[in-house]
Amino acid sequence: MAVLPYKRVLVKLSGEALMGGEAFGIDRATVRRIAEDVIEAVKLGVEVAVVVGGGNIFRGSQIAGMGLSRPAADSMGMLATAMNVIALEAQLASLGQSARAMSGVAMPSVVETYTRQQAMEHLAKDRVVLLAGGTGNPFFTTDTGGALRAAELECNVLMKGTQVDGIYSADPKKDPAATRYDHITHDEVIRKDLKIMDTAAFALAREARLPIIVFSIQQPGSLAAVLRGEGRCTLVTP
Ligand code: UDP
What we know:
The model has no long low-confidence stretch (mean pLDDT 96). By secondary structure, this protein is an alpha/beta fold. The protein is globular and about 45 Å long. It has helices at residues 28-43, 60-63, 70-94, 116-124, 142-152, 186-191, 199-207, 222-227, and strands spanning 8-13, 47-52, 99-103, 112-113, 128-132, 157-162, 167-168, 180-181, 183-185, 212-216, 233-237. Helix 5 packs parallel to helix 7 (199-207). Pathway: Pyrimidine metabolism; CTP biosynthesis via de novo pathway; UDP from UMP (UMPK route): step 1/1. Pfam families: AA_kinase.
């Protein structure tokens, strides 16, 4: 097996990645395909942690108001992320891959409560660690949760799975002249005002000097391909 530059990675998936062609919720076939992609990455010898969003079910900022405070709405959003990791954990298990769902919001009868130490132990035992609850606090996003967990779990890279295969000079779905960057620095991302994740998430990644890979999660097999250095993506480094 070729030696990969990454020993441990954190993959950030938005909740929408689990919707497939549906408008809401969890599409079983899509969850299975993503689980297969994660297993392919594990088979390369990489330790994998996954932070999953909840936007396919609830986004706090969209539902707050009319008697629902933002912290209450964000709690609902964080619970949505737990539903997603439970689905992914079950799918990984049914494919024979050992995985542990953990949550930054304590719900011990449902999933393990996240502690850094326990997550590290799972990763060392080649279990996929699925992280729900984002940062565990309202007013944040799971992108920030992804950057936070990647930094504290000493991941070599934060891999953000998106609808497109990297960072473009403009939205490639709207502007046919948009070009994709193979490599860019954190500082250039700020200077060019490229939007790859929210400001808090990006600031944390930059501060921690955490490389970021933006790749397409829509493309089956692209996670492993990118890890092997073959897939299309954008690499952000300090
Ligand atoms: N959320 C939160 N704190 C966090 C992460 C998430 O309160 O640290 C809530 C927030 O309401 C958010 C929702 O959970 O809208 C779902 O997360 P996110 O919007 O990041 O999901 P994604 O867009 O990645 O699917």
